[in-house]
Amino acid sequence: xxxxxxxxxxxxxxxxxxxxxxxxxxxxxxxxxxxxxxxxxxxxxxxxxxxxxxxxxxxxxxxxxxxxxxxxxxxxxxxxxxxxxxxxxxxxxxxxxxxxxxxxxxxxxxxxxxx
Amino acid sequence: xxxxxxxxxxxxxxxxxxxxxxxxxxxxxxxxxxxxxxxxxxxxxxxxxxxxxxxxxxxxxxxxxxxxxxxxxxxxxxxxxxxxxxxxxxxxxxxxxxxxxxxxxxxxxxxx
Lengths: 115, 112
What we know:
Shape of chain A: globular
Distance between the termini of chain B: 37 Å
Number of strands of chain A: 11
Number of strands of chain B: 11
Helix content of chain B: under 10%
Number of helices of chain A: 0
Shape of chain B: globular
Oligomer: heterodimer
Strand content of chain A: over 45%
Number of helices of chain B: 0
């Protein structure tokens, strides 16, 4: 399985600001995903990060609020813009390879608190 | 609409007891995964089942995929405090759809 790191591991932000989260993988992967996990809840897919093209967003998530970059096959960023307390969550990136779409591996997550 | 229903939502047991967690859906999945998540960490993949009726064992954990590929169960024998965590099932619908749909999770606490 791939080794996935996320930065920062946690942050406390003021409302109205933005936070950019980085996801780095130790090997090239086909697919990268961003999820949100609100306190005490399960995982909700935000978007699929596509290398060299615009991310594919799920219903309820928009690019203006959650811009995503994926410049290469090992790295992606998620920005959470115009923060409000409702954005307080754990944000997780995950990866999968074309050879085994059934298996996704997750990073350790970024815990965001918005005051 | 929650495609994957997990039960129970919370489970607190004593060390040495057995338990079963269920994951049910009205939809067919091409594969189903079980993850365990500990506080402050990302989910860790435990197993993937892809064939209807498939049974996989991982030490004291037994995973079963329903014959119709709509449901799955996780059975833990002789639970230990180290088994404590959030257990999540996730299904993939198949084809070119790579997305996973997650259940709400079962929070298991094993008391010494």
